[in-house]
Structure formats: structure tokens, C-alpha cells
Amino acid sequence: MSDRAPAGQFIDAAIGLLRRLRDEEADGIAAAGTLLADTVAGGGRLFAFGAGHSSLAAQDLVYRAGGLALMNLLAVPGAVGVDVMPAPLGSALERVDGLAGAVLDSSPLREGDALLIISLSGRNALPVEMAMNARALGVKVIGVTSVTYAAQTKSRHTSGTYLKDHCDLVLDSKIAVGDAELTHDGIPAPFAPASTVVTSALLQAVMATAATTLADRGIEPPLLRSGNVDGGHDWNARVMEQYRDRIFYRH
């Protein structure tokens, strides 16, 4: 570790990753935002899924001030965040074959919808099968993952494939294998993960693209406003009533 304070080192590392996304993923972000805009304009619904800490970025898109009201969380019991006890059970569920199919069979996903699948490693059965099964339903899939995992780790799915292999579009978060940006001579393990801040920023860039693409087509993007600004609740009630058949977190 350099003489610079660790807080500054971490922030610099995150800024470096964000700059790489801006410069290297611009085309992918534009394509993903356009795909979501096409889905909204065509009457489809939007969903986001992530397991474990990858779910944090998915949840950040749902019922979000400044976000698209049509973004719904596709939840897998026991795999959303770290709410399951004991916490390692959530990691184990990501490796269960067949779980994704059971979830999709009971979900409202249908042909014409779009699904964002966030998985840092993209190697576990749950995100791989989620992408495979969703595409079989006619759902457009955007994968958000660190592509380098496919080169440096072994897939945990029986097919030997990764999330990136089963998507209509792939966004590479650029996160290094192990998701830790800092090291220290007196600490035996790397530390300071940046995947959450980087992936959330990447996804918000996609949402911004989708909203402006809709507006450029003369379509008012179905955005939510903060409930902590005057008129926010009335605004949101109007939007959610207008799109009630495409919003699933109200019921």
C-alpha cells in the first residue's frame, strides 16, 4: 500500500473503474438503454435480478426517486441481499440447479419484457440458468458482470458456461476477480470491495440513457419523484396508476 491514506486510495480506485466504464462501455450502455426504451415503448415490463450483494444494485433500480417506475425486482427467496440466515445459505442457493426455472415459472415475466441480471462472477447456476430460461421465454436479457471471471475461474454450472454466454447484451463492470481493491502488508487478505458502487453507477447510466431515449422519441419516460419533495407523492400516484398493469411491487 502507498503512503496515501486508504480512504483516498479506495476512492481513487473506484474513480478509475468509473472512468473505464465511461470510456470502454459507452457503446454497451447506449445499447442497453436503447433496449430498455424499446421495451417500454413496446408495452413491455422491466425486471432486475441479482443474488447476494449483486442484489443491492438491482434493488437500487426499483421504486427509486429519479428512476423508471416500470423497473421491478425479480426476487429469489433467500438470495436477495443478506437477509437470509445463516448468511452463507444465500451463497449456497446461488449454486442450486433448477432454482431459476422454478422462480421464472411463478413470475410475471413474459415475452417482450426485459431482464437485467447482475452477477459479479457470472459463474453460479442461478444467474446462468436465469438468463438461459428467460431468453427461452422471449425475454431480452442484459447481463451485468465482470467478464474477467470467465477467464480466471471455473463455471459452477453444468454447462460450463457463464452469464455472459446467455445474454442479448453484456455490460462488463471491470471488477477484478475477488472484488477487493486494496492490500496492506499487515493484512493477509485484500479488502475494500468496489463492485456495489461501480455496478450501481453503471446501471444508473443505463437508466439515464433509457429515459433520454424515450424523451427523444416524444415519449414521457415513466419516472418516479422523491416522496420528500412537495408534490412527489401525487406525481408517483399518477405514474403508478397510469402503468399499474406493468408495476408489480405495489401488490
Automatic annotation (TrEMBL):
Record CDD domains: SIS_RpiR (cd05013)
GO biological process: carbohydrate derivative metabolic process
Molecular function, one GO term: carbohydrate derivative binding
Entry-linked InterPro entries: RpiR-like_SIS (IPR035472), SIS_dom (IPR001347), SIS_dom_sf (IPR046348), SIS_GmhA/DiaA_subfam (IPR050099), UPF0309 (IPR022951)
A Pfam cross-reference name: SIS_2
Residue span(s) of domain SIS: 36-220
PANTHER family assigned: PHOSPHOHEPTOSE ISOMERASE, SEDOHEPTULOSE 7-PHOSPHATE ISOMERASE / DNAA INITIATOR-ASSOCIATING FACTOR FOR REPLICATION INITIATION
Family recorded in the similarity comment: Belongs to the UPF0309 family.
Protein name in the entry: UPF0309 protein C1J00_25185
UniProt organism field: Streptomyces cahuitamycinicus
